[in-house]
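Before relying on records like the one below, remember that each one covers exactly one chain. Contacts with other chains, cofactors or solvent are not represented anywhere in the record.
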Amino acid sequence: MRDMRKVVHGLKPALMMLMVQIAFASVNVLYKLAINNGMSVRVLTAYRLIFAAATTIPLALIFERKNRPKLTWRVVFMSFFCGLFGGSLFQNLYFESLALISATFASAVYNLIPAVTFILAVSFGFERLNIQTAAGKAKVLGTITGIGGAMLLTFLKGVEINIWTFHINLLHKGKNGTLNDDSGSKLLGIFFGLGSCFCFALWLIIQAKMSKEYQGHYSSTALMSLMGAIQATIFALCVEKDWSQWRLGWSIRLLTSAYSGIVASGIMVIVIAWCVGMRGPLYASVFNPLMLVLVAIAGSLMLDENLYLGSVIGAVLIMAGLYMVLWGKSKEMIRLTHLDTEEIDEIKVVVTPITVDPENINCSNNNHTNSKSNNVGKDDEHDNDSLKCEHEGQDIESNGKQELVSSLYVKS
């Protein structure tokens, strides 16, 4: 039973990140529908972060009211950049690319995040390359394999595979429903997607640093959502001149804003922050290829997109790369834990009790009694006895300290 609990506890971060990718894949489909309905990406991003802040702030006040870490200006400074790179700027860039190119293509560009995160994490010292070890080789090869599989899924078609007996086409032509076939727009969409990758990678690294200094996942997420909501709202008010874009109504716009804000940018960001604090930024980023697989499945099922053999091969490579990186990361975690355990076991402190002669301890008491009975005419004798006892006490204390120091052995 204890072994089963250890296995479940070890799988908890992986299961949490799987749930995160399912939620993010759903957001991609909903965003595509909302953009197809004619909603502005900038307004949608602002509403999403407002909903996220409205969700995470009460959670932080409820669950961390007694053990909330101390809020410093350094934490506020880091939360500002978390809100910028992980909230407002990242989401505006990514979903602008989603509006200009297809959902699968945008998801494929999004899967460059593990490579960018790995490079930046190694550059900033959060990850070690360790190419000489099997774990380091597995991480490098797994990252390359996952990205290659994502690219293969996007560009290689092959034979069409009909898995589903029915198709639900939720994407109809709307105000922004048709994709722009202009090559300039596609390049701009790819550029926005690459920019979002760098933003997300920087957020993962900053979040890892913030998780160590401010160990309150609810509070840190609330701060990030609040900062991102302020930034995105100011940006949308400055750029978007059509006030009708701010009307949600009971439509796909409200559903997308509420779901993406409460679930994706609220609850899921708390989960990501927890996983980053537990396993590091690279561990969280390597799950991103799963979103591409889920988007491809959702696109073929609900958006009337075709599934090809190249997509299946790419998905297999993505999963293979994912498990290779996870294997390498797990080996590193086991090695670090083993080293920490050995260091703790090597520290041995031995304290030997010091025995002191009671007659020497009573020396001062006897001297005090004699001084009371012989106060007249025996001052010189009293002073000599006191000095003698004082020197004996100092000798005993010095010998005791030497014995204690010699018996204290610390092996490092």
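The longest strand covers residues 160-161.
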